[in-house]
Amino acid sequence: MTTSQAAAPAFTQLTRPSELPSSMRRELAAFWAAVVNGGGAVIPADCPLPPLSSTHTEAAMDRIAGELAPEQCRLVMATVDGTLAGWLLVRREAHPLEAHCGTVNHVQTHARFRGSGVGAALMHRVHRIAREDMGLERLRLTVRSGLGLEVFYGKSGWTEVGRWPGALRLAPGDDRDEILMSLAL
What we know:
185 residues, alpha+beta, 7-stranded mixed β-sheet, 4 helices, 7 strands
C-alpha cells in the first residue's frame, strides 16, 4: 500500500474489558508480534526477545483488556478498509498528583500501512480522546532512539524532555537511548 492508495482510517475506542472479545485480543496479539518482529513496538516485559509469536503477546493483551476503564485506560484502534492498521493505549496516571496526566503506550502501525498517515491519524485521535473524553491536560510517552521516532512525534506537537542514555539493550552492542516526550493538550 502506498501513501496515495491509503484510505482514511476509521477509529474504534474500547473502554471496557467486555468490548475486547477473545477473538479481537488474539488479532491484536498477532498484530503486536508481527510489529515487534518487523523492528517496531515495545516488547512486553514477560516476553523473550524477538522473534515473537502471538502466544508471547497474548498474556499482555489479556492484562491490557483487564485494565480498560472509561476514565482510566482506553485502547484506540485504526482500521483501513476493515483491516487493522494500528493501535495504541492511553492511560491516566494513577497517583492523585498526576491524575491530570496520561501516558500513551504501545503505539503500533503495521508495516504495510507505514507512511500512509495511519500513525499520524492515531496520534491526532489520541490527543482528542485524552483531552475531550478523559479530561487529561498532558501526555507523555517514551520512544527508543535510532529510529527517528522523536521526529515523527515532534510533527504531532510532542517535545523531547529527556533521555536515558543506553537504557535499552536490543542486542549485545546495540544499546539505545530511551527518549521521554511530552505533549500539553
